[in-house]
């Protein structure tokens, strides 16, 4: 089994923490999408678990999970009762919803490769002291085969497009802006994401371009210039490497928004108005791209 080494990091000496996973499945030909998010928050050793669902045909529904939830530090796995949420399969039977499919992974954020793990982890642990949480993407792009059943319908999945992320840490930032794209006609086996958050000395940004064989990472703490800004009802973004060469530049706009509100370890609420059917276009290394299925939004504490 592949181990996502960087997922195994836990913040030492923190009394409060959270873990949340999310998975979205898109059927681009049918213009359908589905989203699911288990969220676990612990304060003073008291743990609460929640489950969120939504789709292109439904609003957000949330319920508390009463069963004991088992989470994995080494892999992006979560288990409770007979449910399994992992980067290889999804078997969930909860509150009139069924997700039952296998995942054929195309590309990840590269963390499981573990190249020179010891040196990298030392550097990253020093960096992580300034950040409230870790964001990992065990499945930047994958194919789902099986089915999803909601109270309204049962949908068969044949190579539906999968994205899966995992976040954990002692707190959330004041805000978090993100854009993820894994259906790109001009780059059929690629996926990319860009994210920004405010930190003590400014803003921290990261950009990942993932393909089958390699994931390229650009980040503020590596000396690259990463820019993503919410503007009107959309976003503008750009990345330049440490030598000031342009890597990517583009713009995106919202489609329908679904607002997900969930608790933080500090007792606040983190609000995420997320869109799964917007539009993005730009240029990556001199080549034009566009997509009608990005996920994007700007979350904030309140």
Please describe the topology of this protein.
Elements: E1 16-27, E2 32-43, E3 46-55, E4 58-64, E5 69-71, E6 78-80, E7 83-85, E8 89-94, E9 97-107, H1 117-128, E10 134-149, E11 154-169, E12 175-181, E13 191-199, E14 202-210, E15 215-219, E16 225-231, E17 234-240, E18 246-253, E19 257-263, E20 269-275, E21 279-284, E22 287-291, E23 295-301
Antiparallel strand pairs: 1-2, 1-11, 2-3, 3-4, 5-6, 6-7, 7-8, 8-9, 9-10, 10-11, 12-13, 12-23, 13-14, 14-15, 16-17, 17-18, 18-21, 19-20, 20-23, 21-22
Task: Compute the number of strand runs.
Answer: 23
* Separation of the first and last Cα atoms: 40 Å
Number of domains: 1
Gross morphology is globular
Characterize the biggest β-sheet.
11 strands, antiparallel
Task: Look at the structure and give the mean pLDDT.
Answer: 88
Number of alpha- plus pi-helical segments: 1
Helix content percent band: under 10%
**Numbering strands along the chain, what is their spatial order in the largest sheet?**
4-3-2-1-11-10-9-8-7-6-5
Radius of gyration: 18 Å
What structural class is derived from the secondary structure elements?
mainly beta
Strand percentage: over 45%
Low-confidence stretches: 114-119
The sequence of SSEs as H and E is EEEEEEEEEHEEEEEEEEEEEEEE
How would you describe this structure to a colleague?
With 302 residues, this protein is mainly beta. It has one domain. It has one helix at residues 117-128, and strands at residues 16-27, 32-43, 46-55, 58-64, 69-71, 78-80, 83-85, 89-94, 97-107, 134-149, 154-169, 175-181, 191-199, 202-210, 215-219, 225-231, 234-240, 246-253, 257-263, 269-275, 279-284, 287-291, 295-301. An eleven-stranded antiparallel beta sheet has the order 4-3-2-1-11-10-9-8-7-6-5, with no helix packed on it. A seven-stranded antiparallel beta sheet has the order 15-14-13-12-23-20-19, with no helix packed on it. The protein is globular, with a radius of gyration of 18 Å. The termini are far apart.
